[in-house]
Here is the input.
Amino acid sequence: MSAHVYRVVNVFAEQRFGGNPLAVFPDAAGLSDQDMQLIARQFNLSETVFLFPGDAECAASLRIFTPSYELPFAGHPTLGAAAVLHGKGELGDGFALRTRSGLIPIRHEEGVFRLQVLPAQARPSGLSREQTAAMLGLQPSDLAGEAEWVNAGAEQLLVPLASREAVLKAKPDAGRFMRDAARQPGQAIAYLWHQQDGAATVRLFFEQLGAIIEDPGTGSACANLGGWCALNGMAPLSWRIAQGEAIDRPNVLYLDIDAQGQASVGGCVQDMGEGVLRMGRRLD
Here is the structure.
């Protein structure tokens, strides 16, 4: 029987029970790929993160799993892991974590953890406005531009909408969504966003085990949005991003891009609890 300590934290949380919950395993030594996948399925959170020893470049290496598959990068597990490590008091306010997408610089300032966004790439979705609108249960007039695939660590379909109201009223059609928003079978994902005067409203929908789920707070999608803004010459900027309103799970993210086009994504992290996962122990 093996036992593994874990922490539960809420990332992008600025109030009690806000944010996106995350399970963090600070010492995942001895866990196999299958173990990590099954543990993530056991917790059934949007992601579970497993930490392995770092090296000269990073404080730790991360493996990030949804209940269905592993992700090369995700923002809320990276920031949650950073907060857990920083909370041990062994690190300064600037360090790096290694994900399967690359090395992610982290900084901490006045209770906000920020990750530096990797350079982004974008490609056309090939969807017409009519197709995109139908997929989201909207009208073509609700769109503010074309849907594009953007990758700043984890590729997602970004859809700019014409109003905050359009973001909040979106209701994806499951069949169209799984077909038109799929980067590969079983991994459909789309991020809807609208911004005005530095305040953005966003939602992210993704496919999980044949169902369409809404994520409360998504750092990787915010990173992609920052990458898209940088690619389109919108630097510098500083946005406060609200997510989770439609599912009564408020999340607050901070997106900043400096004059050189370097983007960062940040948020607050609240500690919710800890425990021990025992594998192979039967209760008689």
